[in-house]
Amino acid sequence: MNAKTAMPEIGVDAETQRRVEQFLYREARLLDNERWDDWLALMAEDIHYWMPTMENRRRADKNGTYAVDRGALYNDNLLDLTRRVTRFKQPTAWAEDPATRHAHVVAGIEVYQGEAPGEFIVHSTFVNYRSRVEKDNDLLVGRREDVLRADGESFRLARRKIIITQSVLMAKNLNTFL
Amino acid sequence: MCNTQGDTPIRLKRRPIAQSIENLDQLMNLEKGRMSRDLFWDRDIYEQELERIFARCWLFVGHESQIPKAGDYVSTYLGEDNVLIVRQKDGSVKGFLNTCPHRGNKVCFADLGNARQFVCNYHGWAFGIDGALKGMHASETYEAAGMDKSEHGLHPVAHVDSYRGLIFATLDPEAPSLAEYLGDMRYYLDAIFDMDEGGTEFIGGCVKSVIQCNWKYASENFVGDILHAGWTHDSGAKAMVGGPVAEVHKTPEQSYHVNFNGHGWEFNQDIVGNCATLGEKELLKYLYVLQPKVAERLGELRSRMIGAISSCTLFPNTSFLPGQNTFRTWHPRGPGQIELHTWTFVNKKAPQEIKDKWRKGTMMTFSPSGVFEMDDGENWEYSTRSNAGFVTRQQDLYLGLGHDTRVENTDLPGNVFQGQINEANQRAFYQRWLDLMKADSWKTVPQRDLPKMKEGV
């Protein structure tokens, strides 16, 4: 993995930790319930929502497992995310009808102060399980690194990096956000 | 800059071909547009496909731009055979089965990289990038046994060659040349892979996924099925451009199905129709500026194909979309599964920001998270899976569109049909499939399509 030299990890108070956790749990619930517009409203205007694909390379290969100019399943700005949501909402999105059942499980939430005032670096792990029609069940497990930005009483998501364990996506599609 | 590997390699053993399945002719009546579902389900048919299609045809293995330097390699598949495609010191390209001749373990676990040698993890057998066995752990024990290292190199594929940057390999020493195999399809390939002086390159790595479908459903979709787009991809079009897919069935006079040796291309001449679905005006501008130059280079018709509503499959399992610039191979994994490998291709001389927009565009449209591909996978999975029904799979399928659309007097190479809403290419694809499945060697494969293009153009 491309372990960038991390910022010093300066913790936050318990109340901030609690509010960030609430934000992520609520986000997961919005996705489980296909509340796409409410989910989009959590994004900052300058969101970079990124899920690179994993390449199997030798450890000695300086190119690393993933990079921002290589393969990705998401490498999105707000317009891109909005377009994806537009598809989900079409009555002709055949692969969403009957509805897919989603469970977004979020755990291991760590919150640190970010680079700018009012920003927080948030690490979390996730389990995503999707079930469709009779027996289509897809499991994704991974880790996220977010930048949350304070916005009044809540937050906006400014950056998200999603790292999954699979290099070959073991599913016909990825019809959810993580 | 590829060379074939010359003499028939003795390091690649092939058993005499197994007896062909009986009554294959009864699986289809292409005149009537009738097709058996056994093609998409039967395990015996699949096993013979591995032998008679995938261990015989020229299959796509990589783009020259993926392996520019000596020692650069990619790991890919010929059917289910894992192969390493390696750039040599003299600039040529060689291919090897990714298996140690000692106990059979894989010698390379990386998807790609640069190697000075490939060393097996099991007993430390070490192979040069030319495949020769150079040494091993405790080599004196092999010397004591009188083992001759020169007889134990990696198993080479039979031939490697390239066309316009696209590298192909075959496991059949008797295969015709790549130029003959592609035949007149090369005329159309030039519209995409030679539209610009610098040729094309692959960018952004490879995105891989698994679809639980028969490989032919994917191949035949890209060989000629624009018809599905207006229905299947309505939601994707609305997401990307705010409206439905163009109604190409209303203008058949401006579009074609063309095929040769089972390869097929459906296209109209709207220059940018496919590209428009990426929702990036800069890309349309790029193609419109390029089009007159392509017209000078390749003529008016091909210049109007550079990003038009179109799709192509190179028989058997490699496909691409002009304009959306996704290039893909559907690797078979049993009768009911494929592993999909996709890349983004761009003109090498295009500005970086244009290349970046295409890289994002393929992700947004034709990737597992793409708003178009998301609906394809489910169609192909259930077209395959419904055949589990014992009686269901005895019911025929229909592919009879465009029966009387053949264009006889044309300068266009290949078999030409009027109207891209058509199933002529699908029928030609399955005719080629049947010819290969019945023939015991390349010598007995019927020569249905005679090239208008010269060899080696």
Largest sheet of chain A: 6 strands, mixed
Question: Taking strands numbered 1, 2, ... along the chain, how are they ordered across the largest sheet of chain A?
Answer: 2-1-6-5-4-3
Query: What class would the helix/strand composition of chain B place it in?
Result: alpha+beta
Secondary structure tally, helices of chain B: 13
* Shape, principal axes of CA atoms of chain A: globular
The fourth-level CATH homologous superfamily of the domain at 199-444 in chain B is Naphthalene 1,2-dioxygenase Alpha Subunit, Chain A, domain 1
> What is the CA-based Rg of chain A, rounded?
17 Å
CATH topology of chain A: Nuclear Transport Factor 2, Chain: A
CATH class of the domain at 199-444 in chain B: Alpha Beta
CATH architectural grouping of chain A: Roll
Provide a quick synopsis of the model.
The complex is a heterodimer of chains A (178) and B (457). With 178 residues, chain A is of the alpha+beta class. Chain A has helices at 14-32, 36-40, 78-88; strands spanning 43-52, 72-76, 101-113, 119-132, 136-151, 154-164, 168-169.
Can you describe what's shown?
The complex is a heterodimer of chains A (178) and B (457). Chain A is of the alpha+beta class and 178 residues long. Helix content of chain A is 20%, strand content 40%. Chain A has a single domain, classed as Nuclear Transport Factor 2, Chain: A (Roll). In chain A, strands 2-1-6-5-4-3 form a 6-stranded mixed β-sheet. Chain B has helices at 43-54, 139-144, 178-182, 185-193, 215-224, 229-232, 234-241, 273-276, 281-298, 300-303, 352-365, 373-385, 424-438, and strands spanning 28-29, 34-35, 59-63, 72-78, 81-87, 93-97, 112-114, 117-119, 126-128, 133-135, 159-163, 166-170, 200-211, 255-260, 263-268, 310-314, 318-321, 326-332, 338-347, 397-398, 415-418. In chain B, helix 1 (43-54) crosses helix 13 and helix 5 crosses helix 13 (424-438). Chain B is globular and about 75 Å long. Chain B has a domain at 199-444: Alpha-Beta Complex (Naphthalene 1,2-dioxygenase Alpha Subunit, Chain A, domain 1). In chain B, strand 16 (310-314) and strand 17 (318-321) form a beta hairpin. Classes of the chains: A alpha+beta (178), B alpha+beta (457). At the A-B interface, strand 2, helix 3 and strand 7 of A face strand 7, strand 13, helix 7, helix 11 and helix 12 of B.
